[in-house]
Write a structure and sequence with these properties.
5 strands; three-stranded mixed sheet; two-stranded antiparallel sheet
């Protein structure tokens, strides 16, 4: 007649069911996303001009929504949808513009890079700060990349095998597993921008991409390496401009790309966001 009150065990189980799956995932793999930087935190950056405040949560299909919510559906991986919801822009948080000029090939490349930054670079710098700054050479960085890339992209090694013509982890079908030529080209581009060299390049002063400076108003990146990716060798030195403690305390902002120079007025023509390797 009367409903029996749930036991303590049942109550605990029910509460656990409402825990954010991203919280569970980050705890399990020690790969945590840093909290978003908020306008309510004073002295948030030395580069205020390039930051914008998100005054209202952008509505779907608006220009701001597309700018701040770029993502690459081809990089579908474990919990990707939940992670993206967790990382969605909210009112009071800060976003950061990166000027790219007018490039007909920029859209796919940039949404790929945004996924790499959101799902891999932010949690790597925040969770593995000591290991990051301990990378003295490119060889050290490449080892760290190999150890952690599968946390953000569980199928990374599989797709590398497929794209290189391997058997894709035992399926015996090689690159033919990807049915169309356009999908093969998309996958190739994804893997091109998800390499140790290009991920490291996004953090350098020359890339002019990262929203935190490394020591002066003219240094936007957090490390300094040789200017061209093709010149990277195992012995190439990495000069970190920040400490591990800086990385642990760093908070993420919503990076978006724009072709409007007025939204990125602090960029100089001598600093390029992308490397100069041929496409």
């Amino acid at each position: 007649m009367f409903q029996i009150s749930p036991s303590r065990k049942d109550a605990t189980t029910a509460a656990a069911a409402f825990i954010n799956p991203v919280t569970i995932w980050t705890s399990q793999y020690n790969f945590r996303f840093p909290p978003a930087l908020s306008v309510y935190e004073m002295n948030y950056t030395n580069d205020n001009i390039r930051h914008r405040v998100i005054h209202d949560v952008p509505r779907p299909n608006t220009s701001l929504y597309h700018l701040l919510s770029q993502y690459n559906p081809w990089l579908d991986c474990e919990m990707t949808r939940e992670k993206r919801v967790y990382l969605k822009p909210r009112a009071g948080e800060l976003c950061y513009s990166v000027y790219i000029g007018d490039s007909s090939t920029a859209f796919f490349r940039n949404e790929t890079i945004i996924d790499i930054v959101n799902l891999y670079v932010w949690p790597l710098l925040h969770s593995r700060a000591d290991e990051v700054v301990a990378c003295e050479t490119f060889a050290d960085w490449r080892r760290l990349f190999a150890q952690t890339i599968s946390l953000a992209f569980p199928d990374y090694e599989y797709w590398c095998s497929v794209a290189s013509g391997g058997d894709g982890g035992g399926c015996g079908c090689g690159i033919t597993f990807i049915p169309s030529v356009s999908e093969q080209r998309r996958t190739t581009r994804i893997l091109k921008y998800m390499t140790p060299a290009r991920v490291l390049y996004l953090l350098t002063t020359r890339a002019n991409f990262w929203p935190y400076g490394g020591g002066s108003a003219q240094q936007y990146g957090i490390c300094s390496v040789k200017p061209k990716i093709k010149e990277y060798t195992d012995k190439t030195k990495i000069d970190w401009l920040v400490t591990a403690n800086f990385l642990r305390k760093m908070k993420r902002v919503h990076i978006y790309f724009t072709s409007s120079i007025t939204q990125s007025s602090q960029l100089t023509n001598t600093l390029l966001q992308f490397d100069t390797d041929s496409e």
